Amino acid sequence: MMRNQRSRRWLYGVLAALGLVLALAGGYAYWQGRQADTAEQTVTVQLGDVEKTVTALGSLQPKDYVDVGAQVSGQLRRVHVDVGDVVKKGQLLAEIDPDVYRARVEGDRASLRDLEAQLARQQAVLRLATLTAGRTRALAEIGAASHETLEQDAAALDEARASLASIRAQIDKARSTLSGDEANLGYTRIYAPMDGTVVSLALLQGQTINANQQAPTILRIAHLDVMTVHAQVAEADVPRIRPGMPVYFTTLGDARRKLQATVRQVLPTPEKVNDVVLYTVLADVDNRDRSLMTDMTAQTFFVLDAARRLPVVPLAALRPVGEDGRHYLARVRTANGVVRRPVTVRLASRTQAAIESGLKAGDVVVLPGATGATGRDRAPSRRAGAGSGGMLPPGGRP
Fold this sequence. Notes:
CATH topology of the domain at 56-62 and 224-306: Elongation Factor Tu (Ef-tu), domain 3
Organism: Gulbenkiania indica
Structural class: alpha+beta
Radius of gyration: 46 Å
Domain Multidrug resistance protein MdtA-like barrel-sandwich hybrid: 66-219
CATH class of the domain at 56-62 and 224-306: Mainly Beta
Subcellular location: Cell membrane
Shape: elongated
Largest sheet: 6 strands, antiparallel, barrel
CATH superfamily of the domain at 56-62 and 224-306: Efflux pump adaptor protein, beta barrel domain
Order of helices and strands: HEEEEEHHEEEEEEEEEEEEEE
Pfam families: Beta-barrel_RND, BSH_RND, HH_MFP_RND, RND-MFP_C
Helix content: 25-40%
Domain Multidrug resistance protein MdtA-like beta-barrel: 227-299
Number of strands: 19
Mean pLDDT: 85
């Protein structure tokens, strides 16, 4: 009986030890699997777009606008429009007190009438002087008039002619003055120079305008169907910007919406902000839906180059080969383990690369730092050639 008890104890001990060994082996296998999973970080190649861009901050302004000002001084008697009103060319916008200018016009007309009366009188004097000088000349020919009388009548005729010329010159001057004062009277009524929308109103009804030193702006009319992005581009980037280049931008109000535009002009005169030289680049965008408004902030992206619908991987997953900036090695996981495969890059941004050859959508690329399931890489595949025609800046990274 004692022998049977010893046998059972021995059997239980063996079974317990065997269970412990199996548990330790299972835990070790599980731990090894977890280590392998966490060590190997991969990314699946997908088709996508890669762009090489220059970014800049800008603001939106109407492409076509005009600041409507006053050419004469006086009290702004009436403003017929308000901000947001749509106006037509030739529409009356505002009126300045016309009393002073109307009085000047009436005074000019009276002076002109007086000069015209003087002209008629002087014409009569000239006719009389002409007749007198003729009679005296005839009498002098028969000896009935002295030479002195002849000279006096001739001088009187010349004087009458000069006076007539002087009055005519005064009439021309008076007419010119009248024309100017009539124009100023007309300037008291301000009309719209173009079709558009009133986007700002600088002066209010009842304010006094002083146009002697500078033409004050009363309001601004803008054509809002086309807006212009005024982007501030750093001097290091502006040599790469050209008219006709595609550009897109987003606004603070809708960062997910990309609005397409085209570069129209690079202004040659820079602006210096905190010792940084910035050039203004203009790009026009359609705004017939009126979604864009004046002075909106625009995050602008000038597209220098783009690769569309190509396999895309993180740039960090590639190791450069050589110094041409086009050829790389990628570590690709296959059924036979991780292999090193040469690839050709078409275009790279700061974070992503568009692959021209060597990878296809669905390939699994091992990121740096991963050892792979086999513990070592296999040799490159002969079928995955390096290709040609890539494009990257010198050094392989933008």
